[in-house]
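Most newcomers find our protein records easier to grasp once they have seen one. Sequence and backbone structure share a record, each on its own labelled line. To make this concrete, we reproduce a full record directly below:
***
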Amino acid sequence: MKTKLLILVALVLFSCKKEIQPTLSDDTSAIAVKDVEFKVLDSQYIDNDALWQPFEKYWEHFSESDYNALKPLILEQNIPSIQKNIYEGKLSYEKLTLFYLYRIKKFDRNNELSLNAVISLNPNVVEEAKEKDHQLKNRMLKHPIFGMPILLKDNINASGMLTTAGAIALANNNTSDAFIVQQLKQNGALILGKANLSEWAYFFCGECPSGYSAIGGQTLNPYGRKVFDTGGSSSGSGVASAANFSVGTVGSETAGSILSPASSNSVVGLKPTIGVLSRTGIVPISSTLDTPGPITRNVIDNAILLDAMSGYDSSDALSIEFKRSFKNYYDNLDTSLKSFDGIRFGVFKELLKDTLYLNAVESIKNQGAEIIEIKEIEVKLNGFMALLNIDMRNDLPKYLKNNASDKIGLTSVQDVIDFNKKDSVKTMPYGQALFYGIMNDETKEDEFVKIKDSLHIKGKKFFDIHINKHNLDGILSINNYHAGEAAVAIYPAITVPMGYTEEGQPKGLTFITSKTEKDLLEWAAIYENASKMRIVPKNY
């Protein structure tokens, strides 16, 4: 059924390779990675003693019994519930932060359950949490994100921590805050640390497994370590949310990098319309398609995190300065809604062979939605690779000049290639084929402009031909199956847990629309409330 993209393009859609060309029978829907040869599993760069040294002084007053006592107040709880526990004096921001730190230390590295989801930690986060407790006493709470520990994908700049994109070439990249991090801090969020990722946001090595980076090692899926793919490129963000390593995480997407790991790890991932969230201070692939977005365990937290990051950024040419017709993304979200009355969704006939998708569609239909079966039209996204190549060749130098540390000494993609050649075993065990492709691309400027316009038109056509014909509000997909078309159409999408295969692999129901994030969040909340499909990964 899917796809029309060449396999090389499939690699750069930042998802499991087989997900781009899914087989839809239940017995083959699980994506096994157990036969993949991991050249590197655990990080050869992270010094665990150094990672945890800033927190050793706290463990004397926070034990396994403290951790277990806090579980009912924190584990799988949404932000409103956690804040309620704090208001009632059952919990504090300091204890919340220590809980997540303890949990990361317990599960993330160098043991039989390790997931390699976290690259670095904010050494000051506990003291910052104590300050939030003090501020709360003075009634300084303004936003529900206040005091909530958040993990950032490690291509997002944050002061006091390195921003590496998983690459040794950026191992000393000390930066100021990205715009969305400024917004998070302004609203009171705590930056807990950085999450692992597919190196250079999966636009680097070509044949490497998703979730691998030279800095962070190989991220593993908590629903099946070394069995199921983590999805990419926001692999650590998806895994960390699934394993309850923070209240929520932030990922970034070019064409599937949020939808893929969120669905692969049974969490909620939103890819906003480009411009809703700033990209300033984020290591780029494509200024045409890149956007950050929230990854959380539930829809209300997703709305809260989205709201906390939003704001107009004059430094981002695509940043949207819009006047909301609603109060905010979370107060306007009624998570008790149970009806899709009046909402019309298109469902792909080809995907109805997937039992989980069929069940999700039936659930939505039972909640009052009108379901219209549609057949996928053939749209060839010719030039997609050239778009990414030329954008990265132009955009990475701008990041290195304006948003990276001047101590790095790199100015271009070619500089990174040359750096990696000096110690290829350490810096690029899977090679750097996609970086070579960037430099070898001979697309001319006038061709590049035509490619961008053509891809946008084709992406919109893929959805709009059905939206217009059947007066649809949205289209239902699986995981990141239609992430490429949504990306070039500049349409937002959200994925919500829709169940597990017989083998235990998570899958997500993905809503795509030409409307707004508000609509997506509302639909996702209704489906989440009706289905309640998320299950905590066993042993975590």
Summary: The longest helix spans residues 445-470. The first strand starts at residue 118 and ends at 121. The mean pLDDT is 92.
